[in-house]
Amino acid sequence: MFTTLILLALAGSIMATPPSLRNVRSYDQPSTPKPVLNWGDCDPGLVITAQKLGLTTKASCANMTVPLDYTDTESNKTHTVEIVKIAARVEKPRGSIILNFGGPGGNGVQTLLTSPWYMNATGGEHDLISFEPRGTSQHFLRASCFDSPVERRFSQQSNPARHLLSGSKDENTVTTAWEHASASAKAFAELCASRLENVGPYVGTAFAARDIMSIVDALDEEKLNYWGISYGTVLGATLAGMFPDRMGRLVLDAVATPTTYYNSYYGPENYEALDALFKAMIEACVKAGPEGCPLASGNSTADALEQQVFDLFDSLKTQPLVWPGELVDFTQPSAGTYLDDTALRGWTISISYNPSNYHILLAAISGLLAGNVTAAAGARALAESSTEAVQGEALPAIYCSDRLSVRDPRPETARAAAAALKNVTTIGGMGIESMQLSTRCAHWKFDAKEHYRGSFDLDTSENPFLILGNTYDPVTPLSSAQRLASNWDGSVLVQLDGFGHGTASHPSKCIEKIVTSYFQDGDLPDDDIVCEPDESLADIITSSWQAVKDQI
């Protein structure tokens, strides 16, 4: 996307169809026996947790057998998909809604069990279903390149590019960082190649789409009703492209532009709302005041606090905070003996997904500004426990296997990407996580057995979809939802004037009413509707801080 070279590479990949794709003449499902679902009890521990969080109806689980390789009709090898169903609140459900919560690589079973909001938002008259996408399961086709979490943390922390890149907007520095990161990523890719030989080719979005349609077949339902969040919107768009005649009602929430996902190098537009979100977070903190926000003081202003944070980033880049020995914890994502600005930027981006965790970041910053290492470490512990981990190496396994057009390890490509990204965000620096993922993709050894090669300019006028986007989404900005809606005739975009990643992060009765009406009756509001959240950000920060301040 960023250079002519990449566009040419993409064009070449479209024209030259790999042999493995020629076995599938269309995107119709291959002729295989209909899968069978034998529902039983779910993991008791998960169910107890779900009930504490608001689960009120029965949860059932099942395993479904599908082809390991949908493109090889001669093979009898199979894959087992783990599925969960939350029963509707009515005796005779209207059918099922399948949900994917993103990633790629997120945990579908656990997330659905512990997220009762989705039953409320869909009206309670459908069974809700989710599943473990390929690569994410603990039991089947697991994408894991390491033997322990500690090994994985060490690999993440030892990436030399993090120390060169973080906070830098200098293109030469980015090129140097790329060269270091490329060497580290090549070693990572070689390791994964040795451990994922029987996994790597069989994960990817096209096969995930086919697994979903296999679930629909097993349920004896003609059409797919679907709610996809974040990467789940890419999966949803792919489903709509591959199986247009089998689409029922689709909700795409926190839109990741599918063409960007498949074809671009960095996707700098992903971060375009991050700085505005952080500014609004600081303003809400000031509004909450010292009693409601740990960073606020009696005479502080939002502009002054924001500048203090920017100065803190600069300071940590050259003078990292050394953790006292008793606070070092190598089992945690921020494992290490010190805190630099890369780690703090990572906290900022991760925590910005969920407004109910903003107080954690604000408490950490407050402790750091005051030189209170213990308070900062307490916030760190809460931050680590509140961030959702992607399963193993499912993220690079799926993401990189999908992206044939961005296998370009040359420094000049990184420089072009840096030029596009450098003016997008101050908080995100140069996007160390994006760069690490891109370097890994550049050296990744596996290609997904199947890729969707069709268009995403879909005619949805006969069967319109519902598109949702938050005003302040840190990684899937509203503009992505707007672009998708503009390409899909008849589909409607609803904006939530709220914070976080996806509408569930900042609940709104307005959103719930619209989603319920759509799934139950197919009704859509007029375009350009803006919903307000149920609770202001200042109130969320205040209540969240009051609940935990004695723990820090």
Structure description:
- By secondary structure, the protein is of the alpha/beta class.
- The chain has 22 helices and 11 strands.
- The protein has a 9-stranded mixed β-sheet with strand order 1-2-4-3-5-6-9-10-11, with helices on both faces. The chain has a two-stranded antiparallel sheet with strand order 7-8.
- Helix 12 crosses helix 13, helix 13 packs across helix 14 and helix 17 crosses helix 19.
- It comes from Fusarium albosuccineum.
Helix content: 40-55%
In what range is the share of β-strand residues? 5-15%
> Which descriptor suits the 3D outline?
globular
CA-atom Rg in angstroms: 23 Å
Spatial ordering of strands, largest sheet: 1-2-4-3-5-6-9-10-11
Structural classification = alpha/beta
Low-confidence stretches: 1-25
**Mean pLDDT across every amino acid position:** 84
Largest sheet: 9 strands, mixed
Q: So how many helices?
A: 22
Distance between the terminal alpha carbons, to the nearest Å? 45 Å
Number of strands: 11
Domain Peptidase S33 tripeptidyl aminopeptidase-like C-terminal: 439-531
Signal peptide: 1-16
Family: Belongs to the peptidase S33 family.
Keywords: Hydrolase, Signal
Features:
552 residues, alpha/beta, nine-stranded mixed sheet, two-stranded antiparallel ribbon, globular, disordered N terminus, AB_hydrolase_fold, Pept_S33_TAP-like_C, AB_hydrolase_1, hydrolase
